[in-house]
Predict the 3D structure of the following.
Amino acid sequence: MYGFRETRSGETVPAILGVSGVARPLHSTVDPKREAERLVSASPGGGFVVFLGLGAGFAPAAALGLPGVFGVLVIDYGIDGVAGLFRGCDYSGILGDPRLTLLVDPPPALVESAVLELYRPALCGGIRILPLRARTEQDKRSFDEAGDALRRGVEKVSADYSVQAHFGTRWFSNIIRNVMAFRAGPPLDLPPVREAAICAAGPSLDAQIPFLLERKGRGDGGPFVISTDTALPALAHRGLRPDAVVSMDCQHVSYHHFMGSACRGIPLFLDIASPPLLSSLSGRPVFFCGGHPLAAYLRRKWAPLPVLDTSGGNVTFACLSLAESLGATRIAVLGADFSYPGGKIYARGTYVFPYFERRQNRFSALEAQVSAFLFRVPFLPPDSPRRYETATMRSYRLGFERKASGMAAEVSVMPGLGIPVIARGASPPAVGFAPGKPFMGAAEFLKGYLRDLKALPSWTGGYPDAGSGQVFATLLPQMAALGRRWPELSPPELLEAAKRHAADQIGRVLGS
């Protein structure tokens, strides 16, 4: 419960009423506004600020008054107490600001998702978390859980931003070139999928391929085999032709997976940000939209391309999403080690071994290159003998487990050296996977998109309105990449640089 008192400077501050009847003010009883300004200015950092505890809103108001603040998130608990605050304090000055978000009694998952949605490092740089101590000490458990959720969210955003900083410009270039090269063909005619087998490229695939060959050799045709692009040559070298292949890497190294694999007639499911040449390697390419904001934009404005969940960050996760979209009720996963079991890096036949063979010489033997690849990043403490796992691999594994456990299908990871994950669900969802016909020609779409880019106003803080905000979001990965290249640029300068880069790339494609 809250009581209220007047300060010497004339403001109203809430005070927590303890069981003994003693009231503890949440703010200074002399000049709470000045106290809030000192708190905010004494904590240098980026333009996104999280406040744990609402109080009378002095600190959020001070943050919103600073230049370069992109967003403010306020978290508090106890709906009755917050209602009491609203009866005694005036929040009209901050609630009318679109940069402010207030969460009351949020579960940890909501706090984490709020960070993922609101915090954009390309615009606001770092993030600050400022607790209102007098408030957080009264509900330590809830605010500790919120703090843990905030840290998880920031870790995910940081990891995603790091990927954007490396690949943002390449994603953009690949997408607009794939749009220009897109040819709408007849709809993909796939048989009804009830049982699927996903083949990842981990070392355990070597021992598991015979099982799959035996299943495919039965009279019923066996499961519908979905191969990751990395596993494709390993399957081809053993005479197993998959029913579909999925590729989502934007890097040119993806070409190596398809060399000599005779995949011309196999349906190839490609992220729209994949290297443009890949679509020519299959007579049946199917583009899908992953997580890039430009992919989401062109899906609304240009063509209703199907969507795959690629949030796991790896192609095995995308294969699981495809199996789900095709309606599979039973899914077996092979080669999904998410580690280096026994110090092995990939299944035999994958691209990495001939790649290293071509590069070896007297000073860099094949074994030395494999060893350098294996030890290029530190390993985490092992949770099972002879299994070497990196932080990235562990995050992939945990994401895969969460995806599998939330699916309606029955998902099982094959025994062997892989991870022992079992997920059982109910009936399969009503899903489908079919690309739609474009609403307009590719050149017409790109010209319209270019006009919208040029019409974007200079960025002065905050997030644009819904109309221009969709166009603005398509540039965020590029801004991250350009910011890595030119760290001295401010967010407004990064936006202008991204607009120029996008216009140059589109101009090249339209002029070719």
